[in-house]
Amino acid sequence: MAYKISDQCISCGACEATCPVSAISEGEGKYEINADECISCGSCAEGCPVSAIAEE
User: Fold this and answer.
1) Which residues contact 27 (CB under 8 A, 6 or more apart)?
2) Which residues contact 48 (CB under 8 A, 6 or more apart)?
3) What pTM was estimated for this model as a whole?
4) CB 50 within 8 A of CB 9
5) Other C-beta atoms within 10 Å of 46: how many?
6) What's the rounded mean pLDDT across residues 46-56?
7) What total of structural domains would you count in the chain?
8) pLDDT grade for 56, boundaries at 50, 70 and 90
9) pLDDT of residue 1
10) What is the CATH classification number for the domain harbouring 14?
11) Tens digit of pLDDT for each residue in 23-32?
12) Burial 6-37, CB ≥16 within 10 A → b, else e
């Protein structure tokens, strides 16, 4: 199951740097996870300073 970034995202980019498959990119107002590329490893959720990432 892919992870999703909520509206709590502060656009810091910490999640993008931790993703081993580059499934995260900067979107409008927050970062976004490409569900087709996400391998559900959880690295992004662990690296998020505001806990804005969770499994869908």
Assistant:
1) none
2) 14, 15
3) 0.90
4) yes
5) 12
6) 96
7) 1
8) confident
9) 81
10) 3.30.70.20
11) 999 999 999 9
12) eeebeeeebbbebbeeebbeeeeeebbbeeee
Taking only the tens place, the pLDDT of each residue in 10-47 is: 999 999 999 999 999 999 999 999 999 999 999 999 99
Beta strand 3-5 pairing with 53-55: antiparallel
Domain carrying residue 27: 3-55
Length of the chain: 56
Q: How far apart are the first and last CA of the chain?
A: 7
Quote the Cα angle for 36-34-28, to 5°. Answer: 155
Q: Tell me which residue of 6, 7, 8, 26 sits closest to 16, measured CA to CA.
A: 26
Place of tokens 């505001």: 50
